[in-house]
Amino acid sequence: MFAQRRYLPSVSALLAFEACARLGSATQAATELSLTQSAISRQIKTLEAQLGVTLMTRKGRSLVVTQAGSEYAHEVREVLSQLVQASVNASTKRQSGTLTLAVLPAFGMHWLAPRLSDFSAKHDQVTVNLSTRLQPFALGSSAFDAAIHFGHPDWPGVHYLELMPEVVIPVCAPALEGSPFKNPADLLAQPLLHLETRPRAWARWSDAAGHPCTPPHGMMFDQFTTMAQAALHGLGIALLPGFVAQPYLDSGQLCRAAPQTAQSIGRYYLVWPDDRPTPAPLEAFCNWLRAQTQDQSGATSG
């Protein structure tokens, strides 16, 4: 229970104030909210009286937000947005058995998607929706139940389920002359393909291969899948996570450029908000992921 209920305004008053502060006009706010101009004015006056603060002043025909009103409007806007999302969650997805995940493109396509039929067979009442995201975001106020994160446990406000490390292997087109390279120096003399989010990947690989050096620059990519296609077309040697590389290796489209592997500096995690109860579909998904990663224990990662 709220101890200071006298400071808890009605949602109607907050909506009227937020619209008026954003639009700068009681008339426009009234049109947006399907109310009369006088109703908007009454709501704002009631809100000011309740708070004991002047939120808006009139200059000519316009309403101008005071400094206190501007700060309050910003906070009110965030609270209203969270309230809308909470209501949507409560009325739809949270009760419908739907699980909405934000996934990294390569992980979602090459590791998670091929395994989801197993999850669906064991939990046929849960519908899983996937959407790609490359960077951390405000998970708690989003429409996502959880997200796949690569790196370190540095995403604020979330629970973590560690999934696996990322082990990368060098691959290239079978026609690349000299491959596979037994000598790391020979491999590093070839055109190297780089990923934006792994700028030191080749340096770590050369260290692990016993040939510390500063690898040459080369073509840069923002996703593993695009880089794999470039390697396939003979543009250079790519460092790919095992689960990304394996289908290409199995089909013969790519071959291992060298036997040495390296482990990336980060790991993969499932993360979900720590400020609300974990819904049943997500609990089931976490348990399933634990079993999947334990069964595979260090097979391919990335």
Feature tags:
single chain; Arc Repressor Mutant, subunit A; D-Maltodextrin-Binding Protein, domain 2; 302 residues; two-stranded antiparallel ribbon
Main pleated sheet:
7 strands, mixed
Q: CATH H-level name of the largest domain... which superfamily?
A: Periplasmic binding protein-like II
Mean pLDDT: 89
Name the poorly predicted regions.
298-302
Write the CATH fold name of the largest domain.
D-Maltodextrin-Binding Protein, domain 2
- Counted up, domains total 3
Percent helix range? 40-55%
> What is the count of helical runs?
12
**SSE ordering:** HHHEEHHEHHEEEHEHEHEHEEH
The shape is: elongated
Strand content: 15-25%
What can you see in these coordinates?
The chain is an alpha/beta fold and 302 residues long. The protein has three domains: 5-91, Winged helix-like DNA-binding domain superfamily/Winged helix DNA-binding domain (Arc Repressor Mutant, subunit A, Orthogonal Bundle); 95-164 and 266-295, 3-Layer(aba) Sandwich (D-Maltodextrin-Binding Protein, domain 2); 166-265, Periplasmic binding protein-like II (D-Maltodextrin-Binding Protein, domain 2, 3-Layer(aba) Sandwich). Helix content is 43%, strand content 21%. The protein contains twelve helices and eleven strands. Strands 3, 4, 5, 6, 9, 10 and 11 form a seven-stranded mixed β-sheet that branches. A hairpin with a 2-residue loop joins strand 1 and strand 2 (62-65). The longest helix is centred in the N-terminal third of the chain and has 25 residues, at 67-91.
